What we know:
This protein has six helices and six strands; from the N terminus they run βαβαβαααβαββ. By secondary structure, the protein is α/β, with parallel strands linked by helices. The chain is globular and about 55 Å long.
Amino acid sequence: MSVTVTRWWWIRHAPVIDDGGCFYGQADLEADTGDMAAHRALAEALPPDAVWVSSHLRRARQTAAAIGEAGYPLPEVQTHRDLAEQHFGDWQGTPRQPAYEKYGGFHGFWMSVLDNAPPNGESFADLRRRVAAAVGRLSAGHRGRDIVAVAHGGTIRAALVGALDLPSPMALSLTIGNSSLTQIDLVEEPGRRARWMLNLLNGHGVAGLR
């Protein structure tokens, strides 16, 4: 029986240089890509001849470029707006602390907007639908390939809970650090429903995964 495996290699962008203690979501901030050891580890761990995609935001594109500079033979990176971070609407650029105090801390805040969008923004549920559509489209378009996706913490959490069919609040239990690697496979077999297999979550300094 023929089995087709489409492998997703999710990378969260390098740390943002300065967010000023504010929500930034889809604000186009720069990343600090100075940790070359982290980028070399990623360059060594990632498969050759992969399809590369990223969020259109600068911090994701800068991180992909840094991995290339660290030794990975980087192909053209396709940018996709639907891989961007959650859009916080009117909250973008405003201090986080007052919102945390109002909604009961970090977890309380995130729980409050899982299904409710900030003004002129999107909820986590919106993000989950957006990312699921992108993953489905890219998986179909690059079936059986390795896909390296440089994106954001919210994007990767949304992709994971969607792939594993978990309740959205479970996203709060997933740690996705900057410059970390998460690897998940879409496995397709004739006569069976496609399934996802999580192989690595929030890996740092990893090598030998190919």
